[in-house]
Structure formats: structure tokens, C-alpha cells
Predict the structure of Amidase family protein.
Amino acid sequence: MELWQWSATELAAGIRTREISAVDVVQSCLGRIEEVNPVLNALLDVRPEEALADARRADAAVAAGESLGPLHGVPVSTKINTGQKSRLMSNGLSVAAGAMARGDDACVAALRDAGAIFLGRSNAPAFSLRWFSANDPHGRTLNPWDHARTPGGSSGGASSGVAAGMTPIGQGNDIAGSIRYPAACCGLVGIRPTVGLVSGWTAPGDMELEGPLTFQAWAVHGPLARTVADARTALYAMASPDLRDPFGIPALPEPVPQAGPIRVGLVRDVGMATPHRSVSDALDTAARWLSEAGYEVEELELPLLGEAARLWHLLLAEDTRPLLPGMLEIGDEATRLNMAHFYEAAAELWGEKPDISAYIQGWARRATLITRLQELLGTNRVLLTPASAEPPFEQDADITDPDRARGLFAAQWPMTSVPVLGVPAVTVPVGVTDGLPVGVQLVGGRFTERLILDAAQAIENRAPRLTPR
């Protein structure tokens, strides 16, 4: 097996014990990038000589007996909307096509401190606001399973690159499923942590304007990986207590001891979109596997998830409305169409222009939903939901027809409900149906990442390994 096919945990262990070298690992991944990236267009700003120089330094640190981080010598990609010093930071915009970040954002600095070697910047849509990954300056990213289907978005470059073996880990961020959905589309594991676990601090100068409240309160960074073990390692490497982040935490929370079996609530549908046959079958399979692993599984009706998904439309639409003229001015045609369809979907739920009272009441209602969900979950229950009500969408399905676009927004209720509630969630693959990967989502209470990752591991232990492609 070639080194680009190894998992991140295998690579880190091999480098640490000097079974393999970081230089050999980076050369193998660079060779894989050269082979498949011209087709998939997943990674940008790949600089082989810089990566090899970093690898040589990593090997020298091993030889010198220095203290090594959990990702020492492991190749990682970072996203074009996240600051990595002196590297491309266009956010998919033509007006910023050559922009370079002035410094490392906190999550990138944490990966660097963990010993990761950065191989490239992963592609994303303009403003990172679609479930697809195409833009004018950098082009379209393809799904290695089926080029006619989305690799997901907005972290679609990360998912395509990891699934194809370019890097074992990709950094992404998520405000509406932008980690979890690309992972599901490409047969990967993607975890969205509790808000605050991974610092959202950005390097000075890279964000000239403060983001709206929904961006501040909902957006998180996290990893996409080919295995649960890799996602777990990468997540806790990225976890960075940081009070510069207004939603940051002062210290990592301690694991909560579990008493008795863990309960799983299976939520199949919240009345927004009927799950596709393959999605429903995947839920049944995952539920059976969790039962075999000792979990107590019961099917639940949980309307609050549907209510949270509808609140996502209200609060995000009203938060971005003042920004819309500027976004349309510098965004691409896909931005214009996607945002138009987004506002049409929001208007169906909340009317054309909700007033300030509806907006304030929406934030107040959000707090109530968070409390009710936390009371339900406690520390020993997780939810099992679809990743999406549909298989991976056909390319550009969000901009080709308004009716189809509204169907997509409805199908993504598992993606949009979670950010509103601020809780962690992980998508994990179950298998392949009709040539496309299908996965499920596990949702936990606040700071129960270990709990949902353990449940994801129980599923992965019984599922076929799908990647690298």
C-alpha cells in the first residue's frame, strides 16, 4: 500500500518510530496530487518545495528526539477562506483571486503546532456559502465518486482531496453543514464541534469587517478525514481554548463519565423532506449496527430539529440581508442565483421581509430550543439522523431551478438545524448505494464530542472502508 493511502494515525505513528519518513510521506502525497488534482481541482496553491522543506525539518526533529505533536509530519489541507500565513486566501472571489493571508488563524496555528505539514489550499464556492464548490477564479471541484454530483460545499475541495488520497486530513468550517455535508458526499468522516471548542480567532487584517451575529455564533472549524480515529486526532489537535474568540472556552472540558448504556434517538424525518430510500436504508443499517454494539436505539419524533432548521432560514437571511448588495456586486453568477433562491426559500417560511420583532423572537426561541435539546440529550444520549434527506446533489442543483433549490434547502434540515443549536455533530459513511456514498449523522449534547465519535466508531467498525478512492 502506498503512503498516500495510509491513515493519518498510521502516518504519525510510522514517522514517530522512524519506520517511514515525513519526506517520503509528503513525496507520496505530492505524487498523488499531481496524478489526480488536474481532474478533480480540489487543491490550490500547492508548493512542493516548501512542503518538502517542512518535511525535512520534521524528520530532523524526530532524529533529535524532540517532543512531537499528534500530527507530526502528517499532510493536511487548509481552506481558502481560512488564514494561513502568506498563502492564498481568495474565498472564491475574483476580486481577491491573488490575495494572501497575513497570518495564521487560530485553528491553522493549532494544526501547525501539532506538527501538520500543509500541502495546499482547498477550493470552496464564493463566500463559502453553497453546498457546491465552484467559483469564477478557481473553477469547479469534482466528486471523485461521480463528477456529475457535488463533492459538497463549502469545504468541497477538502472532501474531494481527502477522499482521493491527496491528504489524509482537510481543515474545513461549517455554518450550514460545510464540513459534514462534503464528508457525507465523498464517503468521509466530518465533525462539527461544539461552538467554542476550536477557536474562531482570525489573524489581524484578514477580516476587515466583523461578521454578522449568525456567523459569529454558528460558524466553527473542524476536520474532514477518512477514519473516525483520524477525525478524533485532528479535532483535538485543533481544539484551542482561546478567550480572544468571543465564543471561546477557557479550557478543554473533561470527559463526562458514562453510567449505563448510551441511548440513541433515531430521527428519520421532521416534516420538511421525505428521506430518499437510500437514506432511510442507511439509517436502519446504522441503527442495527449501534444496537449490536450495545447502544439502546429508539425511534423519536423531534419537531424541535425542524423548528431549528426553519430558524436557520430566518436568522441567517436577516443577518445577511444588509450585506447582500455588496455580496452580489463582487460575487459570481452562482452567488446571485443561490442567494436569490435562498431568500425565496426563507420567504416561504417567514414572509418576504420579516420585521425586527420576528428576528428578536427568533433568537429568543433559539435559546429555548437549545435548553430543551440539552435536557433531552443530557450526557448519555445521542441522536441518529440523516446527513441529508437526499443522496449527493447533482452539480449546480441549487442554481438551475428555483423549485429544485427549495427542495435542497428542505432536504438539508439535518445540516441547518445543528448550527442553530450550537451542538456537535459528526457524519460517518455507512456504505454505497447506486454508486454513491451514503452516510448518517450523529448529534450530541454540548461538548460531548467523544460520545458521538465513539458512536461513529461503532458504525465504522462494521461498515466497508470507502476511501481513498
